[in-house]
Amino acid sequence: MKKIKRSIVLALVIIAAFFQNPVVFAKNITSSIVTDVNFKADTTANGGQIITEIDSSKKFILSYEFSIPKELIVLGGDRASFSVPPEIRYNNIDMTDVPLKTSDGLIFGTASIKNGQVEITFNTNVEQGISMAYFDIWANFNANNITIDEMNVIPFETINGTVEKEILITQSNTGSGSGAWITKNGKYEGKQDPKDTLT
């Protein structure tokens, strides 16, 4: 009787070993997808042009370009993450679950950004391979970490290691300039000598 019980238990263990569901762990492919980063005047979808000079008070698009070839074997549930450089002011950027699309409109994942960290989660569409995609972030510069009226070199993490992008950040003209700030309306009758006092 004990032999029969032992045989049944052993058979159940062997069967369970053959039919168990494999555990698949999501992987992080951080350095394997970003191919380039550029400063743009508008979103990629709107034909935003790459810029190399910008007024310090202006917003711009920080455009991450990436590709995910099939041979990389990225599966739904896998993640990628990378940091936004400290020269970029990111404390005003807080996005959650932004759909990531190819130029054909295929959604292959979502991106979230908080505290300067971009987190991407892929869905099963990524398994087809993504030849080219963009992730655009509206941003501006962190005044504490840039030099005004000089060429700034800003490093970005990419598949090819650190890529340094140059951009000239000029002083904002806000609040200064020439021209009439205050005007007065009225009828001018020739020989008047109008005088106004501003206090």
Features:
single chain; 199 residues; Immunoglobulin-like; 9% helix; signal; cell wall; LysM domain-containing protein
A few lines on this structure:
The chain has 199 residues and is mainly beta. The chain has one helix spanning 2-19; strands spanning 34-40, 53-55, 60-68, 79-83, 88-89, 95-101, 107-114, 117-122, 130-141, 150-158, 161-170.
Shape call = elongated
H/E element order: HEEEEEEEEEEE
Question: In CATH, what is the class?
Answer: Mainly Beta
β-strand number: 11
Tell me the major beta sheet: 4 strands, antiparallel
Under the CATH scheme, which architecture would be assigned? Sandwich
| Category by helix and strand content | mainly beta
Count of alpha/pi helices: 1
Count of individual domains = 1
CATH topology call: Immunoglobulin-like
* Residues in β-strands, percent: 35-45%
Q: Determine the fraction of residues in helical runs and give it as a percent range.
A: under 10%
Contiguous uncertain segments of 5+ residues = 17-24, 179-185, 194-199
Question: What is the average per-residue confidence, as pLDDT, rounded to a whole number?
Answer: 78
* Strand order in the largest sheet: 1-3-9-5
In angstroms, what separates the terminal alpha carbons?
Answer: 109 Å
Which radius of gyration do the C-alpha atoms yield?
29 Å
